[in-house]
Amino acid sequence: MPVTADTDRAVLDEAWGHIPQSRETTVGLGSFTRRRIERIIAVVAGLGSLALGAQAFLAALAPGDELPGWHLPLMLVTFVPLAAMILACFIGRGVAINAGAFALLYVLALAVWPIATVGSTPDPTGQPWIWYLVNVATLAAVLAFPLPLQIAWTILAPLLFGLVRLIQCGFASDFFVPLGLDVSFALILGGVILALGWLFRSIAANVDETRARAVSSYAEAAAADAAELERVAVAALMHDSVLAALIASERAETPRERTLAVGMAREALTRLANAERDAGEGSDEPRDAVSIADDIEHDARDLGVEILVRRAISPWTPPIPGRVARAVVLATTQAVSNAVQHAGGQGLNVSVTGTADPAGVRILVRDSGGGFDVDAVPDDRLGIRASIVARVAAVGGTAEITSHTGGTTVEIEWGHPES
Fold this sequence. Notes:
Blueprint: H1 5-17, H2 23-29, H3 32-61, H4 68-91, H5 95-116, H6 134-144, H7 147-168, H8 176-251, H9 255-273, H10 289-302, E1 310-313, H11 322-343, E2 349-356, E3 359-367, H12 385-394, E4 398-404, E5 407-415
Parallel strand pairs: 1-2
Antiparallel strand pairs: 2-3, 3-5, 4-5
């Protein structure tokens, strides 16, 4: 079959119809680019942290300013969470937790640095190994914290390093210029890291927001198009089937012609009732009332509603024709769908009663929602008039809807013609 624009559009519409419109999928559609940007940022951060961490580790292996009892604990407190953060960045799991742990522990290591180096004689022209990780702490904050804390860490880490370094050297004047240059460099580099992270995330958020609006607009357009197609189909059905049945009924003179007109009317009503589900009458093999209750539970489960149908079925209830059973099950399922959609399923319960005298079934669908005005339902809405009332009427049954502020009740009854 040649591929045409209409074929492509039909395939897209069918695919869209299979996408579950839940909260989870909506969130996923609205964070597509953001998730990928976060992954890219994590990988780049892992590579940068690995390079600076290796430099700091090599520097830490040489003799340092710390006292003998402090050197190894400070290395463990700093490099173990750093290694965990780098690993998390590469595998894409636990990035925020491990990065946040390193950012906090690094600040703690800086805070105890003056105690660990008390009595040492630092070199004004050199930097201790902990200096190489100042901007890694800023990067970790970008990965783990919200924007206000990112800004705080970008400023706090370099200034804290400058302060503890001055405390270590006893505020000697020889350290002012070198430390000023080091702190300024760290602040500038940290600001660049912070700005790049904010920029890429903002762009990703804007792209996702635009995509989500486009998907929402398409969904609304598809729904409007489906409603219009439904109205056109119903109009054509009314013109072809119902009108033909009315004409045949008007012209019927003999009993055979009247019987034929009744059959045409029944078929037209059934087609009208099934217009939105493309469901035929199906087999007319007799069914029992218990199977009707089972089918109602199964169809409700397909709608995402778990209900237990109450059953008061006499064992002497006569079998019910298959097309009647199918019609009342479909009508009941529509009533359940309406209760879920318009009443949130509040107080929803379904009962099936089967009796032998008179022979027939009676189904009640109740909810305790806010109710509605039955007479105010628009004529083009098929949920009540076609899917419930007309569908049951087509097989010789009755459907009555009562609604008030305390809830809505749909009563469906069908009785054997012989009873």
